[in-house]
Structure formats: C-alpha cells, structure tokens
C-alpha cells in the first residue's frame, strides 16, 4: 500500500532533484528487497507468513498476504530487478519528456506486481493483476505521440485485458466450487475441485488468463510489439516480471488444478509450441529489442512447459531457470538500451565494434550473454542442465521434447550471439551518433545483475540451494531432496549442452547466409495470430459503427418514434396485468358550451395539422391555446386561465413577427411516411387518453390539498392558495423557473441581435 | 366532461407527436407547443375537475373547507406554462436563426455539421 503513496510522491522529488533522481528512486525497491531478504531464514525454515487486512469481509474479499517460497522468489526478483531498473531509468529517461510521470507509472507497476505475487486472496490478486495490465498499458504507450506506441499499448491492453476477463470468470467458478477466495483455502479442497463438473471450464479460463498475460502461443504477438516502450520498461515489465505473472499464476494454481491430464498436457504442448515457434520467429529479426523479446517468449514457453512436466526436477528447473532468466534478460535489455542510447541505433545489421568504446558495458553484456547461452559457470548453465535432466527423466514424449528444447535453446544461443555479443566486435560502422561509455548509473544496475548471475552459478548452494527445496514445495505438495551443483560430471546432459551451443553456432552461421534472402519477406503471413487480432478488432469496430448507425442515426424522427413506441409497449405490457377491466367511462354530464369548446379545440387541431398556410396554422394554434384557457376558467383555475391568455397572446405575436416573411409551407414528406407517423401518433394519443381514464377512475385522497387549504393563510399570508404555493411553499422552484426564463431570454436576445463574424445574412 | 377532456388530451398528444415527426421545422415547433398543452391538460384532468370553486380562502375565515379545486396541480401547471413559453420563444428564435443561416427548414438537411457540398 505504501508503494502507491511513494509512487504518487515521485514527481515532487523528481522536480526537486532531477539530476540524482535515479539514486533516490532506487532506495525504495532496494529497501523492499532487503526487508524481504530479512524474511529469508523464516521462509527457509518452511514457514508461511500471512497477514490480513479486511477489505470487503461480507464477500470474503480481503487483502490477505501470503509469503511462501513461490511469492518470496518473485518478490525478490521484482524488487532486485526493480532497483537496477530504477537506477538505470533515472539516467536513461532524461532525454524523454515527462520522466516524472514515468516513475509514477513504474512505481505503480512495481507495487501492483508485488501485490499480485503476495496476495493470498484471489479477488485481491485479480485486482493487482489488472493493475499491472493498466500500468503496462501506460508504460508501453509512454511515447504517446507515436502512433505505433499507442497501437501497441492498446493491443497489449486488449489481449491481456481479455485474458483477464477469462481469468476472472475462471476464478469465480473456482469460488463457486470451493466457496473460498483464499489460495490457502483452496489447497485442502483440491479433491473437490478436480472432481467438479465445472473443473474443465475453470481450468481453461484460468489458463487463458495466464497464457495471454505471459504471451503464450497464440497470444504471443503483443509482447514483441510492446517493445515500443522505453527500454527500462521492456527490461522490467516485459521480460523480468509482468509477463511472468501468468507463469506465477500457473505455478500457484498447480497445487489446486494440477495433476490432471487436461492441465499437464495443455501446459506441456502450449509451452513447447511457444518455446520453439517464438525462437524461430526471432530468426529474421534485426532489432535488438525485438530479438530479445522473442527470446523472452521462448523462455516463457519453456517455463510453462516445465510446469506442464510437473515432476519434482522440472519444478526445480523451473525456479532456477526463472531466476537465471530474470538476471540475464534484465541485464541484456538494459545493455540494449545503453547501446541504443550511446550509438543511436538498435539495428543489429548496423551495430558493430562497440567494444572498444564501451568496455564495461561489453563485460556486462558478455556475462549475461554467456548465462543466456548456458555456458559454464554461469547460472544459466545450471538452469539449462536441470531443464534437460527433467525432460530426459520423462517417460513418454521425452525424445521429441528434448529435440524441441535443444533447437529452441540453440536458437536462443543464436539470438544471444546476434544481440549480446556481435555488436561489440567486428569493425565499427557509421552510426547515428558516436558511441561512448555509459554513465555509472546506467552501468551499475546491469553489472550487478550480471555479476549476481555469475556468483549464483559459481556458488549455487549458497544462493539457491537451500531455497530450492521449499521453493518447490510451495508448488508441489511434498518436499524434495535434490542438490544442485555446477558440475555433474560428463553425462548426456552435458553432452546436450554442448550440442546446444553447437546448434547455436550453426544457426548463427545460417542466419548470416539466409538473412539477405529473407530480407523484406514475410515468412508466415497466414499463420500470424496478430492478423487475427487485427481482423477481430476491425470487425468489432464495424459492428459498433453499424449499430451506431442504426441507433444513433441523427434523425430526430427515428429517436422519437423509438421512444414513443417503447414507452407505449412497456407501459401496456406492465399495466395490462394490473388492470383487468376497461376503465369505467365517466358519465357524460356536459353542458352545451363545454361541447362547443371541445369541438373548437378538436377542429383547430385538425386545421393545424392539415393547413398549408403558416399563418392559418399559427391562428389555429392560438385558438387551441385560448380554448384551453377557457377550460381552465370553467374548472376553477382562474390563475391558469390568465397566464394562458397572456402567454398565448405573446406566443402568437412572436410567431407572426418571426415567421411573417417566410414562404409557404413546403411539404417534404411522402404519403406513406405520413400514414406511418399518423399511426404512431394515434397509438400514443389513444394510450394517453386511456391513461387519463384509468387514473381518474380511482380515488384520489390528497393530504396535500387539505394541508395547503389550512396552511395558506396562517403560514403564507395569502388567500389565493395557488399563488401562495408558487411564491411561498415552492419558492425555490419558482426561482428556478425564473432563472430558466432568464436564460431563455438571453438566448433569444443573443440569437436575434448578435451576428457571427462576417457569416450570416 | 372528464371523458371529453381525456379525448382532447389524447388528440393533443396525437397531433403533437404527429407534428413533431414532420421534417418541416416549424411544424416540429407546433408539435412541441401542442405537447405542452397536452401535458398541462393531462395534469389538470388527472387532478380531478371541480366546477366553479377556485381555491381561495374566503374573507373572514382563515382556512378553506368543504369542496374546492385542488391548488397543487394548478400550481404545477402554472410553472409548466411559463417554462413552456420560454421553450417556445427560444425554439422560434432558434428556428429563425437556422433559417437565416442555412436557408432551409428541412430537418433532414440538418443532420450533419459539415458544410453541404456546393454545386
């Protein structure tokens, strides 16, 4: 919660210390990081920490937080990478406008992401889930003056938001089955959930949410497009943390939903397909960040696949791989940003020979690259080794998966060679700007992460060994006994690692040969899910436009027709039940002059409708008004009659004055449309007449009538009760009425007297 | 008389709706005014008709008793008449202005804010 306040405060600090803001900002995630590490001994002892703040207790929605191995790992990654990125961004974002806004967004993101992984309550987790989506939207669209930025941001929001809706539905189904909103409450009910008839639906919906968030095939297309965001964002959200939210959810739910063929096989297949496809898609990319994005996709696929394998070893590999990936990919992205910053280009075809100008950046990039390639002795090596081992351990499919994994990892090696190493060697080309070494603040973060990757590789026991057991136990039910080591000796896993590196070299060589041929050609235009997305979006807009044309066509007549018919239909359908009999027709006790008055009104209405002379129509209108006044006189309403007379007189004068010079009526409508309108009008008229009869057939007991009769003189000091009501009991109302008149008068005056500049006649 | 007034009210509504559905803007204004009359008569009739006994407190007495016309609907109608006049005056002048600016009284020609194509 404090996070939101801190991120809101960011702009004030930024304005005060623009130069050193990165150093101030970094203190926040760093502080969180260390406060999380202080929990380490307790987590390592297998303890699960909980804290609950009541939010909507009546619905079982509370802000309850859970700190176990899984959330602990994610929290550490988030805060650690966060610290590096904050520090980096303090310098990097200087040449962007609105940098303070950037820190608000990214602070918001970090807080939501922490909330997401720490929440024990499903509903609260979902809220944080959506918050990360929103902050991601804001960050991708940060350069909102670029169309591509806005489009990518929208795409990311729609895809992840759509998945979020599916997730919400899935979570509600889970709640329906189990009756609890807490993750910790779901675990004991696993049996109930898995055997429920709603289980497949809930599982598929939850997986949809996770797949869109973590950009699994076929929802992967938004992630490369999200590279429009400033580089720190790509490093933080779109490789190290947010895209792993889906993976986190899958790991978290593995306890509850896992163990079935549906869950394991789907994850396995989707993960494997994503792993291979996205690595292949990277083949003809030349943009540094896009290359890295495709490799991130591939890794996300691998992670999903490992949950799908679901064995103890696989879960262990999952964690090592997760940590390793966050460390090296965050670094590589930041390095890519540095290169972009220094050399002014991200095109791998142009970059080269930067090593001499930027030695420290090169060293950092090397470390991260070797980790990504899985070279001894970095942490990436252990990750890959464990991955291979866990695949080999499988009974079926092992052969295919290992081939897929080797190819995908080989392609990753290729990507690394292209994106992480190639830019620093070779001959220097002509670049948009002269490369220079990055400032310390932009170097410190990535360098720390890279060195951590090395240390974690060299001393795996110290960094991860103790953690891993209870890490895995938070995903699987039982505890594990497996020690990780850097060196396992010469076995087939090591052989596979070498094979992978070899493959990578071959791919790299092939790429150099093939790239000129592929240049400017689309490889898979038909099978591109992003074109499905475009088509769906265009279709939706078309539907929206079509229905707007039907409903909001700008024609007054259509609106009124719809309103009248709807009102009549609804009222009739409701009232038809409550009134059984036709209204009692009151006796016709009329005098001669009443009949005359009524006839006059009816005749003048007829004249008004049919007249083709404007003057005649105005007279008929006046006659109608005056006759109404006479009815008021007859039935004890002298004030009304006086007002009506006065106003009708004014109205007729106004009409004559304004309309005098106009030509005769032109008739625009056809006979058919008149007949249709007449039918509508008659239906409404008959309906209203019946309403009157229904209403007067009942009793009316108005206490107000007696009240006003009694209170008028003592309280209002007036004998004319109608007047007293107007100026005394309802004085505010009358004041409003006067105001309306005044406004109308001003409008009239303005329209009559003021002429537009040079415009009107 | 209630029956007759119900018929008159219904006719006024029908005529008002019919006129408001026209394309000619002047007729739409007539329709608007007729609808105003119709609503006033509706409230008046529904508030029960009382012949010849206006709601005045007689001299020498401090309250009104017995049978008399309900003052509340009348007060409401009075407000409505005045507001109706405001609307009427405004629309008439608005129409005049539209006529002067656009040179048409056909509502179908006023669907868009774009300039009409010049021929």
UniProtKB/TrEMBL annotation, chain A:
It is found in: Cell membrane; Membrane. GO terms for cellular component: plasma membrane. Its main location: membrane. Pfam families: MbhD, MbhE, Proton_antipo_M, Proton_antipo_N. Residues 119-402 form the NADH:quinone oxidoreductase/Mrp antiporter transmembrane domain. GO terms for biological process: monoatomic ion transport. Residues 57-103 form the NADH-Ubiquinone oxidoreductase (complex I) chain 5 N-terminal domain. Residues 600-664 form the MrpA C-terminal/MbhD domain. Keywords: Antiport, Cell membrane, Ion transport, Membrane, Transmembrane, Transmembrane helix, Transport. The chain crosses the membrane at residues 20-41, 72-90, 102-118, 124-144, 156-178, 198-223, 235-254, 266-284, 291-311, 317-339, 360-382, 402-425, 437-456, 493-510, 559-579, 591-610, 617-635, 641-663, 675-696, 738-756. GO terms for molecular function: antiporter activity. It comes from the Bacteria. This is Cation:proton antiporter. It comes from Chlorobium limicola.
From TrEMBL, chain B:
GO terms for cellular component: plasma membrane. Gene3D superfamilies: 1.10.287.3510. It comes from the Bacteria. It is a multi-pass membrane protein. The chain crosses the membrane at residues 24-44, 75-95. Keywords: Cell membrane, Membrane, Transmembrane, Transmembrane helix. It is found in: Cell membrane. NCBIfam families: PRK09094.1 (NF006573), PRK12659.1 (NF009302). Belongs to the CPA3 antiporters (TC 2.A.63) subunit C family. This is Cation:proton antiporter. It comes from Chlorobium limicola.
